[in-house]
Amino acid sequence: MSRQRRSPTSEEIRLWREVMRDAAPLRRGAPLPPPPAPVAAAPAVPPAPPLVPAPAARPVPAAPLVHPPLVFGARAGLDRRTDDRLRRGQLVIDGRLDLHGMTQAEAHGALNAFVARAHREGRRTLLVITGKGSGGGVHMGTDREKGILRVAVPRWLGEAPLRPLVLAIRQAQPQHGGGGALYVLLKRQRP
């Protein structure tokens, strides 16, 4: 679909010349076309009726800021160099949280508190150890053995109240726990 350029109307040309009459040209150019003949004034518009003040309206609450979904391993919002350093485990880890042996409820609460505190303190790169789970072995009273935390933690990081604080998540390198740990990159605090 192409748009055709339209030519300015004589009124638009007149207004342009009036606005530009005191301007000095920066360089020589083609002379302007002669001014168009004066246009008859438009008929007067009757004045609008006086406005009746509206009753005091309640302030409309601002819509909550919607954050894009947090996709495990996606680079959204990161420059390539930072993403590569995070993926390779080359960023300085500012805090660690080990969720081994916790139930889902305990782990969820601990994760929320840990990430919120780290963000308040201006920390940027976190290591969250979820454990790999045993893949269906004997259930010993925790969710760790089933690998549930390994799946739940990325989901929790992408939900309120943590999503506004988290910029990216990546699987940790083997020296930091590999598939049983995550790097969490927090957004910078705004002054």
TrEMBL record:
The keyword Nucleotidyltransferase does not apply. One of its GO terms (molecular function) is endonuclease activity. Pfam families: Smr. Residues 97-187 form the Smr domain. The keyword Phosphoprotein does not apply. Keywords: Endonuclease, Hydrolase, Nuclease. It comes from the Bacteria. This is DNA-nicking Smr family endonuclease.
